[in-house]
Automatic annotation (TrEMBL):
This is UDP-glucose 6-dehydrogenase. Pfam families: UDPG_MGDP_dh, UDPG_MGDP_dh_C, UDPG_MGDP_dh_N. GO terms for molecular function: NAD binding; UDP-glucose 6-dehydrogenase activity. Substrate binds at F147, L148, R149, E150, K212, F257, L258, N259, A260, G261, G265, K331. The active site is at C268. One of its GO terms (biological process) is polysaccharide biosynthetic process. SUPFAM superfamilies: 6-phosphogluconate dehydrogenase C-terminal domain-like (SSF48179), NAD(P)-binding Rossmann-fold domains (SSF51735), UDP-glucose/GDP-mannose dehydrogenase C-terminal domain (SSF52413). InterPro entries: 6-PGluconate_DH-like_C_sf, NAD(P)-bd_dom_sf, UDP-Glc/GDP-Man, UDP-Glc/GDP-Man_DH_C, UDP-Glc/GDP-Man_DH_C_sf, UDP-Glc/GDP-Man_DH_dimer, UDP-Glc/GDP-Man_DH_N, UDPglc_DH_bac. The keyword RNA-binding does not apply. It comes from Cellulomonas chitinilytica. Keywords: NAD, Oxidoreductase. The lineage of its organism: Bacteria, Bacillati, Actinomycetota, Actinomycetes, Micrococcales.
Length: 441
């Protein structure tokens, strides 16, 4: 198939490379010349394990190129919309500017029979509005949400848990003839994962758009649920990690996404649940999602609690104290610092008078761009030099593997806060550290 991918951020760059890997002829289009230049040189514009190798592999086949020129989309028959939908500053709703402009720029290059596949996370109703604008062009819109996780983006795209197609439907909810034709095109695009028995859900526009935000809301709720239990554990002396193990053995609950700690961040979960609440309000059903407000509050409270814990171990004040923060990205194996709990806590402590040094294996460049006033160090040992307290904020493998005695040699005081509940309290305490964590005695 000949494919264009509009928007080459985390989603689009990975999608373009994976489509080429599946054997398609792909052009990635982005308005940012720097991004296009890097991708054309075979370099990933962000850190994503496996992506540089994949880019090198598929670019060698000649099946993948990148450009800023939208007219190059005219050679393709399938067009994936992969632009971002960030949170509007100071509001909950999603900013659809990029979706709007990408769609407007793509439209003149469409021909009859073309399939436009929306992948961006959008407020339900967006697909219907875009589809109406394609009427008379002979091109058809499908909604095909993406569920990739940063850090596993290549694997998640090549071997997804499921595929979802939202097709145009008639009054009985059945796909229209153009919908059926579009489905056949998508089946060809995803022939390899479908042959691997990837589950496929074929549905209408509204359901397809809702699937994505419903999935992210469920994941966010699961994390906030266990973090709420952590608050109870803190009040009772219970251990939230053992609690999660025990309830997680129930197959109906499951242990995944039950890791208590600093909570969720990143470019998806926080803004998606807020945009979902905003959309529910517009639809007159805000009560249905009022629990997401709690999910958001529980999540944000963890950050405040961690600063309090730092104050507690420093005998009541962090003013003038040296704090080493291990981790800046919102999760390991990513350089993404958008809504990162680690960075937000580091900045809070700095604002409250602590001397904060942040380190991260991949996220420092992005972190510095966001908070230039923080100090940054290349390694955990460097960051922890003379520290009064060390905070493990993002659970990179190298921080989980830190040796208590080795780190103990450089710090001023052996005090560690385990923001992700990944260290062994016994080992750290045995080495003379004051070990504190969220939801653990
Ligand atoms: C998420 C969804 O998982 C993905 O399906 C969707 O397409 C985009 O949003 P991502 O943002 O890459 O993906 O990260 P994810 O791995 O889901 O983690 C989100 C946040 O939750 C991270 O900050 C992580 O540290 C936190 N988290 C995750 C927890 O605090 N506890 C857990 O048990 C799991």
């Amino acid at each position: 198939m000949r494919i264009s991918v509009i928007g080459c951020g985390y989603l689009g760059a990975v999608h373009a490379a994976c489509m080429a890997k599946l054997g398609h002829d792909v052009v990635g289009i982005d308005v940012d010349p720097r991004k296009v230049e890097l991708l054309e040189a075979g370099e990933a514009p962000f850190y994503e394990p496996g992506l540089p190798e994949l880019l090198a592999e598929v670019r060698a086949t000649g099946r993948l190129r990148f450009t800023t020129d939208m007219s190059q989309a005219s050679a393709a028959d399938v067009h994936f919309l992969c632009v971002g939908t960030p949170q509007v500053h100071g509001e909950f709703r999603a900013d659809l500017t990029y979706v709007e402009s990408a769609f407007a720029e793509l439209s003149p290059h469409l021909k009859p029979g073309d399939v436009v596949a929306g992948k961006s996370t959008v407020p339900v109703g967006t697909a219907e509005a875009l589809a109406a604008r394609l009427e008379g062009t002979g091109a058809v819109l499908v909604w095909n949400p993406e569920f990739l996780r940063e850090g596993f983006a290549v694997k998640d795209t090549l071997h997804p848990d499921r595929l979802v197609y939202g097709l145009p439907t008639d009054d009985d909810g059945e796909p229209t003839p153009v919908g059926v034709a579009a489905r056949e095109v998508l089946d060809e695009v995803y022939a390899t994962p479908l042959a691997d028995r990837t589950p496929l859900v074929v549905t209408d526009y509204a359901t397809a758009q809702l699937v994505k935000v419903a999935a992210n809301s469920f994941l966010a709720t699961k994390i906030s649920f266990i973090n709420a239990m952590a608050e109870l554990c803190e009040a009772t002396g219970a251990d939230v990690t053992r609690l999660a193990d025990a309830i997680g053995y129930d197959a109906r609950i499951g242990r995944r996404f039950l890791n208590a700690g600093l909570g969720f961040g990143g470019g998806c979960l926080p803004k998606d649940i807020r945009a979902f609440m905003a959309r529910a309000g517009e639809l007159g059903v805000s009560d249905a999602l009022s629990f997401l407000r709690e999910v958001d509050s529980i999540n944000m409270r963890r950050r405040v609690r961690m600063v309090d814990l730092a104050r507690e171990v420093c005998h009541g004040s962090i003013v003038g104290r040296r704090v080493a923060v291990l981790g800046a990205s919102f999760k390991p194996d990513s350089d993404d610092v958008r809504d990162s709990p680690a960075l937000s806590i580091a900045a809070q402590m700095q604002l409250q008078g602590a001397h904060v040094t942040v380190t991260d294996p991949q996220g420092i460049v992005n972190a510095r761009a966001k908070w230039p006033d923080l100090r940054f160090a290349e390694t955990a040992l460097e960051a922890a030099e003379d520290a009064d307290v060390v905070l493990l904020a993002t659970e990179w493998a190298e921080y989980r593997a830190l040796e208590p005695d080795k780190l103990g040699e450089v710090v001023a005081h052996r005090r560690i806060l385990d923001g992700r509940n990944v260290l062994d309290p016994r080992a750290w305490r045995a080495a003379g550290w004051t070990y504190r964590a969220l939801g653990r005695p």
